[in-house]
Write a structure and sequence with these properties.
transport, 76% helix, globular, 560 residues, 0% strand, mainly alpha, single chain
């Protein structure tokens, strides 16, 4: 090989210095990221608490503008993320590259890895939406809007599962996988800080050390807090509904069936308090053990539905749902409904309420889940990482939706439920299904199990989010051991969720999250370009005998 070839192919960037403070309260933290992040989140909280009417009106106006203006952007971005992930996994030479040094072994075994993926990524949503989503599409989906099937009929079940799987399948996990891969690949191969800005180093190099890097990390922190707030809000509502089902008092619910202010405050004190304690113990202890516990409890609940519920119908729905999903994933992922007629306007509204909301939610959730997945995936190959992160949790979601949601639909179709599940609020539909399915005594025991499972999922999500925010603020310091900052973010999360739930319900959190997700969506688009560039250039370096990892670069420099 000629020296000219070596000169034209340079090694990757293996240093990305980020200024951190070296003493006092911000010791080890980037003040340029931490202080603006705290100020922005604190201003959102104060605005919601002290100016609730202004906040509500402004958020609603901004939401309708953003959703209608950027709906197509969200739809096509998520489709592109799926395409990039599968391209990298299925491209043989790219898929064999390792997220780490050349012969590095994974830190966690496969069971713990899958358990942490599932618990942090989607656990709470599964408990809320496993009945709620199939049941909602059973009553209204694009086929029903077009008039081709009747709502709440046997013919409405199959299309209901096409859209349920569309929302909880590859789209969600590809968003997480792409962000995690973009961060983990450069952080562990090139010894760059484990933070959002590092993912863009293949595009922008050392410029990520300065103000643009700070800005990207601030956007990621705010998106994380707002994305996790939606999940926490859903979980708190369902947690309170479960406590009410257990007969712990009328004070838990308001007259309209929503959680009372007192119930929200008590629930948040318990849940965020436990999350903060778990976050202080780090990933290896608190989060790992909680993830394994909630995985075990989830399987127990799933087994109950398989045995006592409509197990055979669930398996049939799983098989037909998978076939329909894979058959329609490309057109459904690229379809943008257009208005102008009564049917067209209804289809557009349905897409905004469901698909676009979900795509924004997954993107807002992606800095947190992506960073967390990167943190626990060191040592795996690109192929194992992508297929593991996308296929296994997606399949678990499908099994859960088919067995749990299928049982609820079967109870309504047979008349056994008498409309009690359809008419329940989304937070109460899982409990409503259990109360029809089981005798009162057994149902109360299972309600208790679901409440404990919700607690473990809520605590896992919140403590993971707190640790990830601290990691971003600490310039990639993975354990983020500064207790005062962990306590601040725990309190901030509680205040965001509490102020929005009490003052505007879950819709207020949803709106705030969709707005917060928009700036980060542009960062995610750049990440997709950056990871493709990083992989292509690494393959080119390998072809020219130039090192692609920090370890290899050190040896190469020493040999020169």
């Amino acid at each position: 090989m000629s020296s000219h070839d070596d000169a034209s192919v340079s090694p990757p960037l293996v240093e990305l210095p980020i200024n951190t403070h070296d003493r006092g309260f911000y010791d080890g933290f980037s003040r340029a990221v931490t202080i603006p992040s705290k100020v922005i989140v604190s201003l959102i909280i104060m605005w919601a608490i002290f100016f609730p009417v202004s906040a509500s009106e402004t958020l609603s106006a901004a939401n309708s503008t953003i959703i209608s203006s950027f709906a197509g952007w969200y739809v096509y971005l998520v489709a592109a993320l799926m395409a990039v992930c599968f391209l990298l996994a299925l491209w043989p030479i790219a898929g064999s590259l390792r997220i780490g040094q050349q012969d590095e072994k994974p830190e966690f075994g496969r069971f713990s890895w899958f358990a942490m993926l599932f618990g942090a990524g989607i656990g709470i949503g599964m408990l809320t939406y496993s009945v709620g989503e199939p049941m909602a599409h059973f009553g209204n989906n694009p086929d029903i809007i077009r008039g081709t099937v009747e709502p709440l009929s046997a013919q409405a079940v199959r299309p209901a599962y096409i859209y349920t799987f569309l929302h909880w399948g590859f789209a969600a996990w590809a968003s997480y996988a792409l962000v995690g891969l973009a961060i983990g690949y450069v952080a562990y191969r090139r010894n760059l800080p484990l933070t959002i800005r590092s993912a863009l180093a293949p595009l922008f190099g050392l410029r990520m050390s300065g103000i643009w890097g700070h800005l990207i990390d601030v956007v990621a922190v705010v998106a994380t807090i707002l994305g996790v707030a939606v999940t926490m809000g859903l979980g708190v509502e369902q947690f309170v509904a479960g406590l009410a089902r257990l007969g712990l008092g009328n004070w838990l619910l308001d007259a309209d069936g929503s959680s009372s202010a007192a119930a929200v405050i008590v629930a948040l004190l318990v849940l965020v308090g436990a999350s903060t304690i778990s976050a202080l113990s780090g990933v290896g202890r608190g989060i790992k053990w909680l993830s394994n516990l909630n995985m075990g409890l989830s399987f127990a609940l799933l087994a109950l539905f398989a045995i006592a519920g409509s197990g055979l119908l669930g398996l049939e729905l799983l098989a037909t749902g998978l076939w329909d999903y894979l058959r329609t994933i490309v057109p459904n992922s690229l379809t943008m409904f257009s208005g102008g007629s009564e049917t067209g306007d209804a289809l557009v509204q349905w897409q905004l309420d469901w698909s676009v909301f979900y795509w924004a939610w997954w993107i807002a959730f992606a800095p947190f889940v992506g960073m967390f997945i990167a943190r626990i995936s060191r040592g795996r190959t690109v192929r194992e990482y992508v297929l593991g992160v996308i296929l296994v949790p997606s399949l678990m979601c499908f099994v859960w939706m088919a067995l749990v949601g299928g049982t609820a639909i079967d109870l309504e179709l047979s008349g056994a439920a008498g409309g009690s599940i359809v008419e329940a609020g989304i937070s109460d539909q899982l409990f409503a299904t259990l109360s029809v399915l089981l005798s009162e005594g057994v149902a109360n025991v299972v309600f208790g199990l679901v409440v404990i499972l919700l607690m473990t999922y809520l605590v896992t999500s919140a403590d993971s989010a707190i640790l990830i925010v601290n990691t971003i603020n600490g310039a990639g310091e993975t354990e983020g051991q500064r207790r005062n900052h962990i306590l601040f973010w725990g309190a901030a999360l509680a205040f965001v969720v509490g102020s929005m739930l009490i003052l505007g319900g879950i819709d207020a959190i949803r709106i705030t999250m969709i707005i917060g997700a928009l700036p980060f969506s542009f960062v995610v688009a750049l990440m997709a370009i950056a990871i493709v560039k990083a992989v292509v250039f690494d393959l080119r370096r390998k072809r020219h005998g130039v090192p692609t990892t920090a370890e290899g670069c050190a040896d190469w420099a020493g040999a020169k």
